[in-house]
Write a structure and sequence with these properties.
It contains 24 helices and 16 strands. It is an alpha+beta fold. It folds into 4 domains: 202 residues, Lysozyme, CATH 1.10.530; 118 residues, no CATH class; 123 residues, no CATH class; 112 residues, Sandwich (Jelly Rolls), CATH 2.60.120. It is found in: Secreted, Extracellular space, Apoplast.
Amino acid sequence: MAASFYYWNDCVDFQDMEAMWREPEVSTEWLDAGETKGSKVHLSRDPDGEPYLTQTEMMAVADIIVRRHFDSQMHPDMICAIAELESDRQPLSTKWYDKKTKETAVGIMQILPKTAEWLVRDLGYRAYEVERNPESLYGPFVSVYFGAAYLKWLSNFEGKVRSEEFIVRAYNGGPKKATHKSTLSYWKRYLSVKESLPFRRFVGPSVSIACSSTAPAVPATQNTNTPSTQNTGVDYIYWDSKASPEDMQEMWSHSQVAKEWTKSGEKRGKVRFSNDENKRPYLSRVEIKAVADIIRSKHFSTRGVKPTVLCALAEMVSMRFVNGAGPRTGLMGIDYSTAFWLYMELGYRAYRVNSVDDMTKPFVSMYFGAAYLTWLSEYEGSLSFWAKEREPSRDWSPLATIRASFELLRRHKENTLLELSCNQCEAGDYMDDCGSTARVDYFEQPKVVNKTLRSAVVRNFTNRQQPDSAIRRFISDKRELNHGTMTSVLLNAVLFVTFVAMVTASDPNIITDFVVPANSSTTIDGDFFTFTALRGFFDRDYPPNFKVTKASMAEFPALNGQSVSFATLEYPAGSINPPHTHPRSAELLFVVDGSLEVGFIDTTNKLYTQTLQLGDMFVFPKGLVHYQSNANAKNPATAISAFSSANSGTVSVPSTLFATGIDDNILAKAFKTDIGTIQKIKTGLAVKG
């Protein structure tokens, strides 16, 4: 392993090497050491011959990863200090061993391979490939990326904004030991290391900065006709990299946007985001209003979603920063798992979500934010009941905090004025405390009033106290507001308190009897709740080959939101259901005819097998590889499976490996065989298919 890490080029790709050379401190250090751009760069070595990163190199890697993937959400100094404690900045370090999983943590950030795989699979962190190449975790950029992703997850553990001490101690001992005495010494050493880090000319914004300043109404870094980084000192992010050509055309067709972009010298195909004084990209109020208008007109024109509400929510949650603020990602604070649930379970599929990075795209975040708000608004009449019923569960306990606000709305139907704290008031105080009021237009609000609003809202979300304070400070548009609009805006604001509390929780359960598919014209009667594809199932002859008949959300739309699905499985004599997994559900198998040999393999590669007779049941844990076999050469068998998801998904191991176009050379090496054997297997699968 050490030999392959003799040079920087051995453990990072070309793009990352170019990024390192662009860091002034790194290029100076490398050139002074005799390195040459375009040639391989030597890794530094300690007295034992082990490669390590210098402090300058470590800071550069942390800065680059944060700028690319965690802007406004994390301070690079935290990463640098933890890397110092975990590995002494040695990329080949393997100091920590997990006795339970029998895995060794690797790399600068000491990441367990299973942790990295979980971050990829469940949270959508897919900037680097690790599932097929676990050894890539030894690479500095890969290790820092997944270490930062884990730190971000800890920063909002169980839906609560966590302190720096909790995050650091949980990184060392896990969330359960974040307050245990065993992690206290680690925290103290962390503080000492962090304090000793050298002065940094530019490290990007800290989380505290992100939570204490908003994107200005007017760009802090004005775009000019010369977008060169060399002239401006700013690495711009372009709209065109964050939006589809169709959405960009819609933006250019928006008169106010076209006027603003033309005035600042933007060109089609290369439109820059504005940057604040800390070089964080954000949307101007004209831009965010246009995005909200476009999303509403194209996808929610009949759903009662108001662009003004979407704009105000984006202001509260992300302060209009492209990458989000604090632990929440993107304009609307929607995380990857929630967007994926909306996409798969509720049918909101105008935009695909392939990774967590997609949630930093303005149109994607706004779309799924509007979708989630729509889902919440459909159940507005049951919020009090919902909060009461769900309060005992930790996932839903934050809902109890919105009950007072929900009742407050019912009492405020006649109000036509929303009052904001004036400049003399402390953030969070009511205007009655100083006897003055301010009436503010959303799209013309001064920056100082905006800070007051944001402070009140952020404190309310964080402390879960006085939920009505965020509502009383909600910004109104004095030109268009009337009694009906006021009630609607207030109601949506209350729903968004629920929105923020829940976007990082597990997939929500519905609170009404059923869910009607989006944009559906289906008549809701008894037929909607009836599935007839299994009529005559027990009377017909067995098929010649193994057969599955599914009753999932795709075949039976009434299952949407019910967290249940069903399948019948027919096994002719001597047939099998090949090894496969269900990534989103456990499976409960019930044998109704014949007998079956079944088994599954856990994450330690232990095989569990059983012979099932008529009337037996067997559970296959969620996500694990399993199979069923009818070993009887004469008699068929039948089973029924139940799943804890309306769309459990199926990944067939043989088909995934041999029928998806994976290169024959890769498969031959993986299975330690020759290409001819691989091609023979592929041919056999093709014939059976």
